[in-house]
Amino acid sequence: MNELQLLGPRASGPVLGNAILKATAEDFQVDEVLDIPLSGNGEHLWLWVEKRNLNTEEAARRLARAAGVPLRNISYAGLKDRQALTRQWFSLHLPGKADPDLGAAENETLSILKRTRHSRKLQRGAHSANGFTLRLTGLNADHPALDARLEQLRSQGVPNYFGTQRFGHEGGNIHDALDWAGRQALPEQRNVRSRLLSSARSYLFNQVLAQRVTNGSWQHAQVGDLLAFTDSRSFFPAGEAECSDPRLAILDLHPTGPMWGEGLPATSGVTGELEQRIGEQQASLCQWLARAGMTHERRILRLPIGGLTWHYPEPDVLQLEFVLPAGCFATVVVRELVDLVSVGQTDS
């Protein structure tokens, strides 16, 4: 599957050029935003960890080995990119134990920047946002055109697609999910099962969002939509009055799309018809997700870009800084600007 099949059309117009992202780990930096006051005491040791070219799961395994505890005693809020420089929190459950020597976990790919105790473990999804610093190198694009496009993105946001990394190499996770769904069976390995279920839900969401980008309704509430605030997981139906809510214009309130699970989406009108049509087209995936016990949830269609700033350290380098809600993809912001190419493939 190609990118257009996995995501959908761009919303801001044709790309303005091309560039390289992640020529080095420092070109893609992520800082987890966690608004939890830590008490300084308790049976959980919280670690602020910097990782370079190391995924979250491998970092957790290294911390568990160094601490001499089972992997289940290690918690983190979310998965971060491997090919990046990332900073995120981990917690270790150490009831009745002193702080362990974690030196064996540290090397050039992992550093512990801070440690403190707390009474509770770190829960998945506990972080509120992620801060990004991206450097696009080998940039081949007109600066004034980029500036105008970035101003546009700052005011209207971007479609909140799940990025291609959610789907594996060339959409391999979706091919596997379709295979399992065709048999209405589940992988035995928990991590494989979780990955494929997540990929399937993300793919279906992207299918709905792609249709709404195509018909221009992704930025607007329609009667029958379910609306949600940027930082809320709850949603409510849109009538005529809700469709005129001024908070829609300031990117605080948004229409949502389905994260498929048990039951039918509670949307109605043209939105309900669209989601029902996608569900019928992908019936085996939807039935598979329901049989797996997934709960129907919603995700905002529009992604506001917080604190967006940019500059050009060099003529062929664009540096972006911004904040996105947890679970959202920085690459879908870049996708509205330029095509990403591999090192050595930019136009001269």
List the helices and strands and how they pair.
Layout: H1 3-6, E1 17-21, E2 28-33, E3 44-52, H2 56-67, E4 74-76, E5 85-93, E6 110-118, E7 129-141, H3 143-156, E8 158-159, H4 172-183, H5 190-214, E9 226-229, E10 236-237, E11 253-259, H6 269-281, H7 283-291, E12 297-300, E13 302-303, E14 306-314, E15 317-325, H8 331-334, E16 339-340
Parallel strand pairs: 1-16, 2-5
Antiparallel strand pairs: 1-7, 2-7, 3-5, 3-6, 4-5, 7-15, 8-13, 9-10, 9-11, 11-12, 14-15
Protein name: tRNA pseudouridine synthase D
Keywords: Isomerase, tRNA processing
Pfam family, one: TruD
Structure summarized in a few sentences:
The chain is α+β, with helices and mostly antiparallel strands and 348 residues long. The protein is 27% helix and 27% strand.
Beta-strand content estimate:
25-35%
SSE order, as H and E?
Answer: HEEEHEEEEHEHHEEEHHEEEEHE
The first-to-last residue Cα distance is 29 Å
Query: What are the segments in which pLDDT stays under 50 over at least 5 consecutive residues?
Result: 344-348
Globular, elongated, flat, extended or rod-shaped: what is the shape?
globular
The count of DSSP E runs of length 2 or more, i.e. the number of strands, is: 16
- How many distinct helices? 8
The description of the largest β-sheet is: 10 strands, mixed
Radius of gyration: 21 Å
Integer average pLDDT: 95
Helix content: 25-40%
Structure class: alpha+beta
Enzyme class: isomerase
Protein name: tRNA pseudouridine synthase D
Catalytic activity: uridine(13) in tRNA = pseudouridine(13) in tRNA
InterPro entries: PsdUridine_synth_cat_dom_sf (IPR020103), PsdUridine_synth_TruD (IPR001656), PsdUridine_synth_TruD_CS (IPR020119), PsdUridine_synth_TruD_insert (IPR011760), TruD_catalytic (IPR042214), TruD_insert_sf (IPR043165), TruD_pseudoU_synthase (IPR050170)
